[in-house]
Design brief:
The structure is a homodimer. Chain A is an alpha/beta fold. Chain A folds into two domains: 104 residues, RuBisCO large subunit, N-terminal domain (Alpha-Beta Plaits, 2-Layer Sandwich), CATH 3.30.70; 263 residues, Ribulose bisphosphate carboxylase, large subunit, C-terminal domain (TIM Barrel, Alpha-Beta Barrel). Chain A has 15 helices and 13 strands. In chain A, strands 2-3-1-4-10 form a five-stranded mixed β-sheet. In chain A, helix 7 runs parallel beside helix 8 and helix 11 packs parallel to helix 12. The interface between A and B is large, with 85 and 85 residues.
């Protein structure tokens, strides 16, 4: 075996009563995430020297919190996403007091990821929106017929929505079967685009059985869908990557956070908002990362949301920056603080708020569309 | 739309300061997991009446803990695993103070799942072990060559291991590429079986890129593998199900807990050990559920381990009971308490302990094999 010497780095927050315990946890991380073997039993040579993780920095942050940067040989990942995630946090997810803060990947590892096919610029081009924030809504509630959902899609597209996605709970239920719904909704959005001269995309939810997702996506493409939404927490990050990487699909991908919440509910465990919703979603090919906005019915803080936006844009070699897509909490009154956090580089996701605004969805959509057109932040401010 | 009226039930623990807050959280669950829409804006009729979740029981458990059972129309799941998990815990995973305790599924929903192909009885038949506990080890450490791993497999099989699996960190790394490793290890175990007249199975790790997992599994089958190990937290539960359901593979599936730890690190959030490692793994086709044993280097308690064993066996229609496969902490001294928790219906997973026991892996394996042969619990005791 000859290792390249290239290593990637994972920054962890380790919670421990005192430094000795934190050092033990750091040492355990190095072993657990790689060899899963006691150090004294390891054969001498490259395994002990390079395959095992290496503590690169160790700092006492405050009270019981320590920052530990561990580096791993790039070869441990087999140069693919699933095993990369396994090295980052596979077994250590089961140990309390360990949280992944961020990843630093060298080009030799980044080079194996295509990343988002569209990114911000590509998605802007698709919906013909140069500078302003983008506007997205979700078709709902579950239980409506395919025809009712298509009518809803039509009315929203007509009002100026950029992106109309299936609510993430729309799957292949008898009341609106996947293929019927996708066909009708794609057709409705296309019709609205023709009428209004707009460039709205319909984005169906392809989260489903692993054996069917690619076929669902191909059907959606043929039916005229302009993107795909998938929940990587349910379907796996690698399946999202497969969708993004597929040249024949060539569709933007929206990542939905369903079933991922447990990674971010504790400050001591799991994965940071920045790494999970930002970096990992990008590596896995998402062009936009959906999450609950601060001030809505979920509990993400303003700082956490801001960190997702940062992770969606931070420098990562050739991996394109993507859109943060915060859901909920959008109103004129909140424009100033939303500007401060997101600037123009955001997709605002308006769900129930759109229906709450009044009975006419077209009017409501154009109200919100005017709002995002008015809030273009001058480049000098940002 | 005409719903069948059949509903499934999810039991949640809700953490709240007082009853009013708990009731609000229960109401939010009913909406969030289905329509994601405010109740007052729902169209009248079946959506508000039946699609929305329904609080069936509400009990104050202690201090800030409440038990809430919510029922959902079976149709909301689209009768497939991914969307079932989404209804159970998709968006609510993102809300603090909500934990899934257990699922109660009616036959109309269970009927859509094949469940484990082998289960306990089938796996016992494969390795020719009628009553005693089964014994499993993992090939490690990562970094060894395929030939070294195969030699290790040979020595362990010769000593009487029932199951020899890849360590879950063995993927498709340059030091032991998947196909080379699988070919050599399967051949080594087959050779040991011929020499010793035993029935050990080699179980390679097929956790990998979504686009390759089925091919990896087919290759493994052709090479003589006797089972597959996969980490559903990394690969997705649905992909594990696809492996289990594939008639041409016809191989037992071991589920590894990597990347799933964040679901169980908090008593207030996530999914119970019982539901996640027991019920959900079974629905997704695992024949054995691997987890860290109590008293080892991880932090699961005896009660939590015991609940996994219970979830692996509890009545679930036609869905077969599966083996709990606790890893680590096995020694003669611990036999009495291990018996108490698991009886004979267990796969003991010995990793580093096997290497720690002495330099001769064949001797060590036969030492542990004798141990599990000696600890058969009389049926009357159990």
């Amino acid at each position: 075996m000859a290792l390249s010497g290239d290593r990637f780095r994972v920054s962890y927050t380790v919670t421990a009563k005192q430094e000795g315990e934190a050092l033990e946890k750091a040492e355990a991380l190095c072993l657990e995430q790689t060899v899963e073997f006691p150090r004294d039993l390891l054969p001498p040579g490259e395994i002990a020297g390079s395959i095992v993780g290496r503590v690169e920095t160790f700092d006492h942050l405050s009270d019981s919190r320590f920052h530990v940067a561990v580096s791993y040989a790039v070869e441990t990942t087999g140069f693919e996403l699933t095993q990369l995630l396994n090295v980052v946090f596979g077994n250590s997810s089961i140990k309390p007091g360990i949280r992944v803060e961020f990843l630093s990947l060298p080009d030799s590892l980044l080079g194996t990821f295509k990343g988002p096919r569209f990114g911000r610029a590509g998605l802007r081009a698709r919906v013909h929106a140069d500078r302003r924030a983008l506007l997205c809504t979700a078709l709902k509630p579950m239980g409506l017929s395919s025809q009712d959902l298509a009518d809803q899609a039509y009315r929203c597209a007509l009002g100026g929505m950029d992106v109309i996605k299936d609510d993430h709970g729309l799957a292949n239920q008898p009341f609106a079967p996947f293929r019927e719904r996708v066909r009708l909704c794609a057709e409705a959005v296309e019709r609205a685009n023709r009428v209004a001269g707009t460039h709205c995309i319909y984005v169906p939810n392809v989260t489903g059985p692993a054996s069917e997702v690619m076929d669902m996506a191909r059907f959606a493409k043929r039916a005229g869908a302009g993107g795909l939404v998938i929940s990587p927490g349910l379907a796996g990050f690698s399946l999202m990557q497969q969708l993004a990487d597929d040249d024949s699909l060539d569709l933007p991908i929206l990542a939905h956070p369903a079933f991922l919440g447990s990674f971010v509910t504790s400050p001591e465990n799991g994965i940071s908002h920045y790494a999970l919703f930002g970096q990992i979603n990008r590596l896995a090919g998402a062009d936009a990362t959906i999450y609950p906005n601060f001030g809505g019915r979920f509990s993400f803080s303003r700082d956490e949301c801001s960190s997702i936006a940062a992770g969606a844009a931070a420098s990562m070699g050739h991996v394109k920056p993507i859109f943060p897509a915060p859901g909920g909490g959008m109103s004129f009154a909140r424009v100033p603080e939303l500007l401060e956090v997101y600037g123009n580089e955001v997709i605002f996701l308006i769900g129930a708020g759109l229906h709450r605004h009044g009975p006419d969805l077209t009017k409501n959509s154009s109200y919100f569309r005017q709002m995002v057109e008015q809030i273009i932040v001058p480049t000098s401010v940002r």
